[in-house]
Amino acid sequence: MNLWGNRVKWLLSIMLLLIIVSMSFLLLKGERQSTNKQPILLSTGKDFWLENEDILLYLETITQIKNHDLYLKPEMKRRELIQDTLKFYVEKTDPFAAYMIADEFTKWKKSQGDLYVGIGMEIVKDPEGQVICLPYTGSPAEKAGIRVGDHLISIEGEPVRGRSILAIGSMARGEHDTSVKLLIMTGGEQKYISVKRSHVSFDSVSISRIENISVIKIPAFTRDTKVKLENALAEVGKTNPFVIDLRGNAGGDLSAAIDSAMLFLDDHKKIVSIKTRQSIEKYESGNGIVNSSSHLFLWQDEGTASAAEVFIAALTKNNRAISIGKKSFGKGTKQDIFELSDGSALFITTGFLQTPDGLFFDGKGLHPDYTVESNNPQTIEYLLKVKGLLKEKELNQAVGKS
After folding, report:
1. CA-CA distance, 330 to 315, in Å (whole number)?
2. What is the pTM assigned to this prediction?
3. What topology is assigned to 115-200 in CATH?
4. Which among 51, 65, 94, 291 is placed 20 to 30 Å from 161, CA to CA?
């Protein structure tokens, strides 16, 4: 009994020390990564690490575990032990955070972009920690039967609850033309779904016409979205009404969403604010406006999240566009990547997003200006709303002239 009690004390001590040391490390790293402030130099050399009692105590604890703990695998190196403690800490405290060793981070970087091997699905977490599925339109995940809002329970029998978003994403990826088995909660019941991995590609901006209305589809914001959107706007023209379809857009690159919003806004209009520990970063429109006059409608649904919500709020709160659809998902946080000296990396949440009128929408979502009432609305229902609003505007203009 005493042995077990001592073991519990050891574990509690480790967790407490880890929290103290890791938070200090993240704060220090965050200061060094900041582009707005000069780095804070706590010491001119390596002596700082030798003088820091918390870090010395943490290393002493790791050494004692490595040398004496019978439950620790003998072949595990001290660095691996430290890496495991870092992974445990960030994944338990931040639902979007992850610590990736150098090899994992290298593989992750290679997997980014408009073309990768996977199942074509974003995942996010709700306030209760449930993992929510947001499959891309036409993706292997959607074709296999996964729908926006389904809960992901496990991948190949491994539970996903408690794991970081990046860790779960890595579990779903693999070789081209191989299958992965997912356990999904959908419609109140659990079922297994096998999804075949493939080369998933998507164009961040595409344009089509539906009953004489131009519809610009943005499935995710990427680095090239602004340029492609600008080209699409040139095709639409500066007077014709059009739609930007953001249904199922789980976000992507926040900077790309901010830059894209600037194409529609006059100078000095608020786009988004990011509340961090140290300050509030405010982003406003510049002089890059391309289209300020066309009637613009934004389509959203329960799968619209993060950077896409920022884009919608920037245009609707500045009275530049009208939103139509369902309440959006409500992911209003910002994540940053901090690459460490050994090639490993930290992915951590660094700020909360705030709309131009001061709303924090994380966990709440954004209500559309006009709701599409049916439970699973189709494109035709969105289009009817657009046509109805255009007719109403024409009628109002006619009455005004008379």
Report:
1. 17
2. 0.76
3. Pdz3 Domain (2.30.42)
4. 65
